[in-house]
Amino acid sequence: MDPNYDQESRSRSAPTGEIDNQPAEKKRRLTVEQVNMLEKSFEEENKLEPERKTELAKMLGLPQRQVAVWFQNRKARCKIKKIERDYDVLKACYDSLLAKHESVISENEKLKSKVFTLTEMLLPAAHQTQRNLQGKLNSKGDDETMSSSTALVPLANDHYFTNVDESFGWWVWPSNLM
Amino acid sequence: MDPNYDQESRSRSAPTGEIDNQPAEKKRRLTVEQVNMLEKSFEEENKLEPERKTELAKMLGLPQRQVAVWFQNRKARCKIKKIERDYDVLKACYDSLLAKHESVISENEKLKSKVFTLTEMLLPAAHQTQRNLQGKLNSKGDDETMSSSTALVPLANDHYFTNVDESFGWWVWPSNLM
DNA sequence: TTATAATGTAATTAC
DNA sequence: GTAATTACATTATT
């Protein structure tokens, strides 16, 4: 026993309009021409004025109600498509920003190296201090910035400076130091 | 004369809610209890095995068909909700990354200033070149890093160095230079 | 399963 | 106030 459901429920006894030469079947799908016209109309204007509704209904041989329903459903579809598009756009923005971010992080590391090395060059006394500290903190010697130099001038051609012109494109190394 | 609305199909005479002892009406809505149980079942397991379908249908007094349809529609709803959630999550990630990015950009600017100033301190000859160039490129003098010093030591206390410990937390300025 | 049609209702708008 | 209309969720079909 299930008293809770009636199988027939869906039988559209509706008049189905004028062009109904078929024996009034379920008529669930709209014809391609009908959809095309509705689609075209929707594209022109997603809002359905009563006047346009009447006109469309007459033109397509559909009850106004059905035209209204179609527009509502079309609008709903439109909305979820929009959400998907929004997601894709945002994803692209995110990926782009992420790439930029990583590039800037990398530039940042280079700059830190430069600052470190320049400071080292500038302060021989500090350099001593730092070597002492490094002996305790970094005894495996995995940071090559520590071991390259103690003098001022020879570092000018060091690899730490190969990208200096990224930051100061107009900078020119004085020829006497090259 | 109001051709703008079709009365038919809107009538729906009183579904009267749940206690449907009237045999006639088209029982389209499920009762709250039915929905609750379906919802609970769906939460436990979004896949509907034939066995569970039968059981649920019997328990709720619904045709299996209707139970199956409910699960399918529920799944579809679930999917579009997921898209919305995904969007929100991604948006949060994006905003977070953007903030980080801006912070790194800012750090970057500071580092560039440091590199510039340190280089200036290090290379009096280059300093001359640079001042000449600046005279052409930047005659309004809107970059204060240009005008502060030419000597080596006095700069050590300058504001360009106030954040040095961000990059080298373990660094200690030698006391003789402070 | 996906897309689409139809229905149920609450909220909104206009008369 | 209430009829008309829309927006949104739900149910159903293909």
Automatic annotation (TrEMBL), chains A, B:
Primary localization: nucleus
Domain Homeobox intervals: 21-81
Keyword Lyase attached: no
Classification via Pfam families: HALZ, Homeodomain
SMART domains per record: HOX (SM00389)
Locations listed in the record: Nucleus
Region (Disordered): 1-31
Protein family according to the UniProt entry: Belongs to the HD-ZIP homeobox family. Class I subfamily.
Function: Transcription factor.
Name of the protein: Homeobox-leucine zipper protein
Organism whose genome encodes this protein: Brassica napus (Rape)
